Amino acid sequence: MLWCQRGVLLVLCPLACLAALPCPPGCCCPRPGFLVLCESLGLRSLPRSVPLSTSGLSVARNQLCNVDHLLRPFSSLQELSLSHNLLARFPRGLPSRLESLLLQENRITYITSGALRHLGNLTLLDLEDNRIRAIQPGALLGLSKLQVLTLKGNRLTSLPLNLPSSLTHLDLSENCISVLDLPSLSALVNLQVLRINSNCLRSVPESAFDRLPRLRSVDLANNLWACECEILYLYRWLLSGRPRTATDLVCTEPVHLVHHLLLNLSVFTICPRVLRPNESSHQLDLNSPLEGEQETLAAKPTGQSANKKDLGSSARRESQESTVGLKSRALLNYYSLETLTYEACLSLNKTQTVSPPPLKNTTPTPPIETQKGRDNVTGRTPKYNATLAEGTQSLLSTNTDVVRPTRSTQRVMLHGSAVVVSLLVVLCALVILLMLLVLLLLRKILSRQQSVAPLDVGSGG
After folding, report:
1. Bridge partners for 31 per DSSP
2. Counting Cβ atoms within 10 Å, is residue 326 exposed (0-12), middle (13-18) or buried (19+)?
3. 159 Cβ partners below 8 Å, 6+ apart?
4. pLDDT tens track for 29-45
């Protein structure tokens, strides 16, 4: 809005300047005493005779190197533009009533907390295209009314610490930021627009954007995205489609995924070990009891007598069986595999390396979920249109302790039944052939007896 008003004022400036009386030489004063524009004049110092009652001053596109404490007398100043100059540091001694400060395209290299100490009324701060490498922690925290902060085109390597929670628009694009500081980001509860494109981000921390309830637009393009397990949070967050976000994020790592679009990949392509336990900190440990199970085990009495060892061992076996079922259901609920394909499922089954457990006297009964998963794995007819939950259960069934012996037993039973059926068929065929032979013999005997009987009668007469 400020730039639009300034453009209109520049168009009307020549006519207004004719009627303006108290105006510095070479400047334009469309509102004498309120708005003064002294731009592109080659000034090396502030112009003289600027009215102290001025509320808007622009000395952009000049050659100013230092304006420290020179603007303090302008107690009514609310809008100030010092852009496109030669300032090497953030100006000091600015009026405390300032609401808008434009400092883009200067030579500022760092920002100290003292420079902004008395600017609590700022709502807009533009530091685009400077050389800022560092911002002291808490330097911007005192700006409790700041809503728009632009740090585009600088040399920052991390997110500034202790940003004010009043921010609604934050532009950090075209820097060298490689890590997002989660505490500083989560404090921006009013943030609506975030631009962090053209940086060096490889991934986004877990739940980084979940604590920003008003976030509606994010620009994450042109970063060094590593399409590996650490990017799964960002992958699922983009699939949710909640804020308006550019989804054409391109992978730069690993080598076999370079130039691929992130959202064109499946979960298993990004992170092949997503369902393998004990390989990632985000996965559940099958050897540790679940929270509910820990409470149940804690409630059991520990003082078992010597004559109850058999009962205790059977109870432990039952507890282990229920643990397998609970862990399988927990894994199924923990992973949300939106893009699981049948081919990926088969490739994962081929890469599973689970050693079979030692044989025991008693074979535990697998839970219902494990039986369903085993049917999906060893079924005769693979279903390409199987649901996502059934596919996941079939994958989980290969990791349980009870599937391998039961599945081999089932194969032996099926093989034996097939042999028995084939033997019965052969036996029936032999019986039928034997009966046919017997019938043929009886027929020949009967026909021979009929041919001999008339000859005997004729010879007797």
Report:
1. 35
2. middle
3. 172, 177, 179, 180, 181, 184, 185
4. 887 778 999 999 999 99
Taking the chain, what is the end-to-end CA distance rounded to the nearest angstrom? 143
Domain that includes residue 324, residue range? 278-292+319-414
User: Tokens at residue 90, please?
Assistant: 């953030």
Nearest to 210 by CA among 231, 234, 226: 234
**Sign of the C-alpha dihedral computed for residues 424, 426, 430 and 435 taken in this order:** positive
Phi and psi angles of residue 267, each rounded to the nearest 5 degrees, phi first: -60, -40
**Residue reference for tokens 């535990």:** 364
Q: In a 3-state reduction of DSSP, which class is residue 96?
A: coil
Taking the CB of residue 38, how many other CB atoms lie within 10 A of it? 23
Whether residue 350 is contained in a domain is answered as yes
Question: Is 407 part of a structural domain of the chain?
Answer: yes
Mean residue pLDDT of the chain comes to 74
Q: Is the pTM of this model over 0.70?
A: no
Cα distance between residue 369 and residue 346, in whole Å: 19
The pLDDT tens digits for 268-313 are 999 988 765 444 444 434 344 434 444 444 444 444 444 444 545 5
The count of domains in the chain is 1
Task: Tokens for 373, please give them.
Answer: 């998963």
